[in-house]
Every structure is written in C-alpha cells, then in structure tokens.
Amino acid sequence: MLVLLGALVAIGLFFFAATRGALVVRHLSGAAVDRAAHVYPIYSNMRLIKLVDHQPIISAILLFQYERLVSRIVADLEVADLSEKSVLITSCAFGNVIPSCVAAAIHAGAGTIVIAYINANELEHARSKLERHSGCSIEYVRQDATEMKLREGFAHANIMFFLLHELPHELKLCALDEAGRMLAKGGKLYLAEFHKPRPLVLRGMSWAYFKVFEPLGLALWDTHDPVALLEQLGGWTLHRETLFFGNFQILVATRR
C-alpha cells in the first residue's frame, strides 16, 4: 500500500512539474512571454512528449473514456461528404486521435488534411504517427489556434481535441471564432472537452484536478462554456453529447 501511495505521489509530482508548476516557475523567473507562454513543457518538450504519449497513460488521464470520445468523432467523419475537400485538425493531442481522424477523413475522400499547432515539436511528433499515410496530402503548419493565417472557409471539418481548456480565458473565444472563420458553410467543428460532472463526488474530484493541474479548464463549467461562446458568436447549429456522468463532452457545431 505504501509503495502504491508513493508511486501515485511521484506521478502526481512529475505531472505537476511538467504542467502548471513549470508555468509558475517561468512566471516567477520573469521569463519573456510569447504567444505560446501558456503551453506546458509536457506538450512542447520532445523528450517529455515521447515519455508521456503512450495510449494507456493518455487513456487513464481521461478516465478511460478516450476511445469513446475519439470514436464519436471518427464515426461522423467516416460518413461525411468530404470528397476532395479539406479537413483541419487544430491541435496535436496525445494518443491516437490524430491517426484515427486522419484515417477517417481519408476514408471519406478528403483531398487535403491540414494539421495546425503552435509548437513545432508537437507537429513533428504528429508527423511521426502518420508515416503510413505519407502518400496522402497532409500539411503540417505551425500556427496559433487563436490567430490562424489559413484562408477563410477552406475547411469542411475541423477537429479540436482537448485544446480549449488549455487556453487563457480571453483566447478561448478567439479560438472558436477562428474555427468558424476557416469553416465553409455547412462545415463542422468537432470539439472534445471536459464538462461539469453531474455526481457531486466526481465533480469534487474534477474540481481538485483542475485546481492543481489545469486551472484554465474550470471556466468551461460556467463562464466559458463552449456552447454559450458559440451561441454568442452566432451562425452555428449546435449538438452536444456528454459522456461518463457528464465529465466529458463532444460538441458538433455546424457552420450556417
């Protein structure tokens, strides 16, 4: 029991050091702030990426709901009319979400797939997962989700997998606004994110997790609920599904 407890404490300390703790140290040291200042080292340092990005670890972090979340998006992509159209993936989330979505988009006939992220190491890591699709038209672009340089209305699908909760509050709306700008009429935004759990016990555990590791994520429960933000922007038809007692959400937003 003590060994298990010690292992859990060590894992918790590691993740804190590679996430929020690193940002606290960066702030206290007076390091220069840039557009990627909110990105945790665990998502930008190649050694940490390779150390952590293993499916069992990522599945455990999402309470073993990872496959359910990915499968919801994949199922919709596979039956979408993407013939010779463009698909955008705005994030480089850990796990198999990118290979799964790329395979589904190719199956649906997509002509071009664009993977965009603010960090070069994550883009390179995503490229390494897609070697079997090297003959397909896949572009990797280093861009900020809140200030994209891609042309308006070029994409017919945009996958944003657990990105919104990592963004500073003032940038969450910007990212959604950009997602809408790049989608063609009738295009769909697939947003997977955390959600406010219904059971009080799970809600308390989630609250503690966010406070320690992901303080920017708590706003998704109320002030920065993605449905409310998209309704504020206007021009969307929205469908939200919650999973695992309301702890996660899949939002499919269609551009009108």
Order of strands in the sheet with the most strands? 3-2-1-4-5-7-6
Q: Kindly provide the radius of gyration, computed on alpha-carbon positions and rounded to a whole number of angstroms.
A: 18 Å
Number of helices: 10
**Number of beta-strand segments:** 7
Shape: globular
CATH H-level homologous superfamily name: Vaccinia Virus protein VP39
Q: H/E element string?
A: HHHHHEHEHEEHEHHEE
Would you give the CATH topology?
A: Rossmann fold
Strand fraction: 15-25%
Q: Can you give the helix content as a percent range?
A: 40-55%
Query: Separation of termini?
Result: 55 Å
CATH class: Alpha Beta
Domain count: 1
Q: Pairing-aware structural class of the strands and helices?
A: alpha/beta
In short, what is this structure?
The protein has 256 residues and is α/β, with parallel strands linked by helices.
Q: How would you describe what is shown here?
A:
The chain is of the alpha/beta class. The chain has a single domain (64-255), classed as Vaccinia Virus protein VP39 (Rossmann fold, 3-Layer(aba) Sandwich). It is built from 10 helices and 7 strands. It has helices at 2-18, 20-28, 46-52, 55-61, 66-78, 97-107, 120-129, 169-182, 200-212, 226-233; strands spanning 86-90, 112-117, 138-142, 155-161, 183-194, 236-243, 248-255. A 7-stranded mixed beta sheet has the order 3-2-1-4-5-7-6, sandwiched between helices. Helix 6 (97-107) links the parallel strand 1 (86-90) and strand 2. The longest helix has 17 residues, at 2-18. It is globular.
